[in-house]
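Hi V.,

Quick status before I head out on leave. The structure for the redesign project is tokenized and pasted below; the design run finished overnight.
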């Protein structure tokens, strides 16, 4: 083999190895990518099916129900326009309360119940996750537009 062919083979092997590394990195990134959706978007079927994503909003007052096993909790998350039932098995954050902001990560079940694997609650009286605050704001604006249109 001539030196020129050896160099071309080494370059080809290097390019192939780089391509494999890039493909593996992109695959890992895609598998770990988690998007945020509001209850309105989930109800409108904008959320991915069979993939993990986050929902956020307010825990609806009077919706928290603890199961007899003491570990499973069911509650409803709302963005003031739509609501979504959530089921979570595990310890809730100390600051989890009805009427307060929450972000839950998990998957949507075929029955329309969001099965959370993680629940995050606000950390002080004035804080709401930015995504949840924006979702609540948009939902309120949409509700106001709808009520003005219906009033005409």
């Amino acid at each position: 083999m001539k030196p020129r062919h050896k160099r071309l083979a080494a370059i080809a092997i290097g390019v192939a190895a780089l391509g494999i590394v890039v493909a593996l990195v992109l695959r890992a990134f895609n598998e770990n990518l988690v998007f945020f959706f509001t209850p309105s978007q989930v109800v409108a079927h904008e959320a991915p099916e069979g993939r993990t994503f986050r929902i956020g909003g307010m825990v609806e007052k009077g919706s928290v129900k603890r199961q007899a096993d003491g570990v499973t909790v069911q509650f409803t998350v709302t963005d003031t326009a739509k609501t979504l039932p959530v089921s979570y098995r595990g310890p809730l954050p100390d600051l989890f309360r009805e009427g307060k902001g929450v972000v839950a990560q998990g998957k949507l079940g075929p029955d329309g119940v969001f099965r959370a694997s993680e629940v995050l609650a606000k950390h002080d009286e004035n804080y709401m996750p930015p995504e949840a605050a924006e979702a609540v704001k948009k939902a309120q604006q949409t509700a106001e537009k709808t009520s003005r249109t219906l009033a005409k």
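Above is the designed sequence. The CA atoms of residues 68 and 124 lie 30 Å apart.

G. will cover questions while I'm gone.

Best,
W.
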